[in-house]
Amino acid sequence: MLSMQTRRNVSLILLIALLVVTGVVWSMGSQEEGLKDGVYFGQAQGFAGEVGVDVTISGGKITNIEVRPHQETPFIADPAIETLVKNILETQTADVDVVSGATYTSQGLIAAVKQALRKAEGFQDGVYTGSAQGFGGTLTVEVTVANGSITEVAVLENSETPFIAENAFKQVPEAIVANQSWEVDVVSGATVTSKAIMAAVEAALTE
Known about the structure:
Elements: H1 4-33, E1 38-45, E2 50-58, E3 61-67, H2 74-91, H3 103-120, E4 126-133, E5 138-146, E6 149-157, H4 162-179, H5 191-206
Antiparallel strand pairs: 1-2, 2-3, 4-5, 5-6
């Protein structure tokens, strides 16, 4: 028979093992339900042009926000951007107040971060439709998500010029699936159509 001391040792080992397993399971569940680690790009309209950001997620938290070169007025935008980045990192949310005197730049930066965070949240399985304005009219896409990944992008309706848009219809959806992002390179000669497909996919996955 096992001695009392041996029994206590066995019980202690089992308790430690249970705590470790519980911690791992909790951590996995938290990671799946929260933000997924990685670097995510977001972009939105500021005052003078697009404001782009690279948001780093580590351990399920926002750990860094790198603002890409922009066309905003430096002496107005730079202090506002510094304040906004600090506030977002401290509060761990993009729902922060705009900086007075730099409203458009603030709104652009906040929207860009929110876009990046939506990507970090991952995609929910399902089939989604979205629309955007193309060169010839409204363009509608159907986006299929399976196991958290974009598996197919199909253009359902459009009024684009066939011989100009056909390469975009093929290459842009393929690039979106390959990159798991609606931000991909435009197809030369079909810039408007390419951007419309991206915007429609974004609308499908975020609205």
